[in-house]
Design brief:
Layout: H1 10-31, H2 35-48, H3 52-65, H4 70-82, H5 86-99, H6 104-116, H7 120-133, H8 138-150, H9 154-167, H10 172-196, H11 201-213, H12 217-228, H13 237-248, H14 251-264, H15 268-280, H16 284-297, H17 299-305, H18 315-326, H19 335-345, H20 371-376, H21 380-387, H22 396-408, H23 412-426, H24 429-454, H25 459-471, H26 475-488, H27 493-505, H28 509-522, H29 527-539, H30 543-553, H31 561-574, H32 578-587, H33 596-607, H34 611-632, H35 638-641
Helix pairs in contact: 1-2, 1-4, 2-3, 3-4, 4-5, 4-6, 5-6, 6-7, 6-8, 7-8, 8-9, 9-10, 10-24, 10-25, 11-12, 12-13, 13-14, 13-15, 14-15, 15-16, 16-17, 18-19, 21-22, 22-23, 22-24, 23-24, 25-26, 25-27, 26-27, 27-28, 27-29, 28-29, 29-30, 29-31, 30-31, 31-32, 32-33, 33-34
Length: 646
């Protein structure tokens, strides 16, 4: 199942059920005593007892007597939805909507049902209407976010999830989805930048940073040195090289590069790197005093970049630094800075999720004419606040300055606004894309971490995070998240399916088989579980055993069906039935995103003597494979994006 298309949480049904109980009893009193009200009372009683089949039967009895009461149709639809009868629910909700177009529940669930069926454009239409009816319902925005995400309209999805988190700040799932959406925007923007100009200094800086995050330190060093040999390198590129050299243990070279950026002005990152070197030399008191000076210049910078202090720092040194912070004089380092730095050493979140976190002091700023001076003095927060009021009228240079200042002080939403304005008003694509990507990545990390803080024991959140790890090839981290979910509830169906799929991606067939058998024991008719079992059987080359599972999976939602056809093609090819295999592969080509299905089809055409068709299939396979490789090489600092599993 797609990571952003899970059904709504059960709490929503309870809220709507309570509302409709009142409505239904009112409806019954309007029509008086008799069979109609008797059916309604039976339905409400069964619904209260959790007897969904009995409630459905009672509601069906009521609508058989009167077909013109929208509330009854709506509650019948709710019960059918909970029972998994999507087609029946759609009929009931459509009837209710036709009778009363402004009744909220049918509109909402027509959106959610269409979303589950993969009809995302229709889902957006209904959910947009639901938003007009109930503009402050977070579930509406969650549905809209999922629909837009499925349509790859990530900007719209981001806006929807942002509103959902504003309305329900304690929803870990909303924060999670908001974070993942920012990841997708960063990935799409990276691909756009790669297509525009890979030789751009801004692209190369992102490339160097990505290599550093992957641990490819030699390649990162070479990329930074080439970048610094040409003009117009992005801000703090030399300091970033210094940080890579620290990781490589080349201390004297690192010191040299960091001091160069420190002397040029405007780069507190260089100062932070020098503090890291001071800590390594045991000059803890000097480091603490320097941190106090940075905090006085801009608390936001230190909050946003405190992790630099622990680059390649041994655990014992971290412990000693923590003790020194606990004993630091307030004259050297304010209490707020001490608590923030100690939190950072523990791996905690140091930035507020909704923008700048003030230390309570009053800070005066002067008009934007002084912004460059603020930047040079590394007072990024003052620089940001002096420029932001004039955002729509700033020159290109001032917008670039605003993007840099806001990024370094941790105001990433402002960075996005400045980057967007750069692209729209001045067609400054390269600098605009650069700051957009960096801000999207940092926001993604921030929201994903916060999601875990909001609901640390949520099975649902562990499942969602596991899926994100899977999507990025981090299978061991995904396995750990599924294990946490299954430790909480060993019969958790979604976690069993996800764990099985994760093992399959690692080619660990036996544990995959164990997990999917446990899932099928919970729900033998589930289409996705049958699909995964079919994959397991194919991996074992048990083609006859795979076929019935895959045929059972053909009733899955529309987007999964082409993949089922591809697997059936593999089954028939494995059994030597070339003609049937070709037909199944042709039916599944729409799911081929890496060229593998076209390649297998080409081999089957060759076997059948269809040379021209084989050549066409191989050509399409090559094109799809190249497209996949290009996307994979985009600048997505993926290991940096998702917080490591504890």
């Amino acid at each position: 199942m797609n990571r952003c298309e899970h059904p709504p949480r059960r709490g929503l049904f309870g809220k709507l059920r309570d509302c409709f109980f009142f409505l239904l009893l009112s409806v019954g009193s309007v029509f008086g005593q008799g069979d109609f009200e008797s059916h309604l009372q039976d339905a409400v009683k069964a619904q209260s007892a959790g007897d969904i089949p009995a409630a459905i039967a009672a509601y069906q009895g009521a609508v058989a007597i009167r077909q013109d009461v929208p509330e009854v149709w709506a509650n019948l639809g709710l019960m059918q939805h909970q029972a998994g009868d999507s087609s029946g629910a759609m009929v009931s909700f459509r009837t209710a909507n036709k009778l009363q177009p402004k009744l909220f529940v049918p509109v909402l669930f027509l959106g959610l049902e269409n979303l589950q069926l993969g009809n995302r454009a229709e889902a957006v239409r209904y959910l947009s209407t639901a938003r007009q009816l109930h503009p402050n319902d977070p579930e509406v925005y969650m549905g809209l976010g999922r629909a837009y995400f499925g349509l790859k309209q990530f900007e719209n999805a981001s806006l929807a999830y942002r509103r959902a988190t504003e309305l329900n700040k304690k929803s870990g799932e909303a924060w999670y989805r908001r974070g993942v959406t920012h990841l997708e925007i960063a990935e799409a923007t990276s691909g756009e930048f790669a297509a525009l100009n890979r030789q751009s200094p801004y692209f190369q800086e992102l490339n160097a940073e990505s290599l550093n995050d992957q641990g490819k330190l030699v390649e990162a060093t070479e990329t930074y040195r080439k970048l610094l040999a040409v003009p117009d390198a992005p801000p703090c590129s030399r300091a970033s090289l210094g940080l890579v050299l620290i990781r490589r243990g080349e201390v004297s070279e690192a010191q040299n590069e960091l001091e160069k950026d420190q002397k040029s002005g405007g780069c507190s990152l260089a100062e932070l790197g020098l503090i890291r070197l001071a800590l390594a030399r045991g000059e803890t008191q000097l480091a603490i005093q320097s941190l106090g000076a940075l905090w006085e210049l801009d608390p936001g910078f230190l909050r946003a970049h405190a992790s630099v202090l622990t680059i390649e720092m041994p655990a014992e040194q971290i412990s000693n630094f923590d003790q020194a912070l606990a004993q630091a004089s307030s004259a050297d380092l304010p209490a707020g800075a001490v608590s923030m730095l100690r939190l950072s050493l523990q791996g905690g979140r140091t930035l507020a999720v909704d923008g700048y976190e003030s230390d309570g002091s009053v800070v005066d700023v002067t008009p934007s004419q002084r912004a460059q001076d603020y930047y040079t003095r590394r007072e990024y927060w003052r620089c940001t606040k002096s420029l932001l009021p004039a955002l729509t009228t700033l020159s290109r240079d001032k917008l670039s300055l605003l993007a840099a200042c806001s990024f370094y002080t941790g105001e990433f939403q402002t960075t996005l606004a400045a980057a967007k304005r750069l692209r729209q008003a001045y067609h400054a694509e390269e600098v605009g894309l650069y700051w957009s990507i960096r801000a999207e990545q940092r926001l993604a990390v921030l929201y994903l971490i916060y999601a875990g803080e909001v609901e640390p024991d949520s099975i649902r959140l562990h499942e969602l995070l596991a899926e994100s790890y899977r999507d990025r090839g981090k299978f061991s981290d995904a396995e750990a998240e599924y294990k946490v979910a299954l430790d909480i509830n060993p019969r958790e169906f979604a976690a069993l399916i996800g764990a099985a799929a994760n093992y399959l991606q690692e080619q660990r067939i036996d544990p995959a088989a164990e997990m999917i058998q446990r899932a099928l024991a919970e729900n033998p008719s589930d289409s996705e579980a049958n699909y995964v079992m079919g994959e397991v059987m194919i991996a074992k080359h048990s083609y006859p055993e795979a076929e019935p599972y895959l045929k059972a999976a053909l009733v899955a939602k529309a987007e999964l069906v082409p993949r089922v056809h591809v697997l059936l093609g593999q089954v028939y090819a494995g059994q030597g039935d070339t003609a049937r295999a070709i037909e199944e592969f042709k039916a599944g080509l729409s799911s081929d995103d890496d060229g593998s299905a076209h390649f297998q089809l080409g081999r089957l055409y060759q076997k059948s003597g269809e040379g021209k068709l084989a050549a066409d299939a191989f050509e399409k396979s090559k094109a799809l494979s190249q497209r996949k490789q290009t996307a994979a090489s985009g600048l997505m600092e993926q290991d940096k994006q998702l917080p490591p599993h504890p």
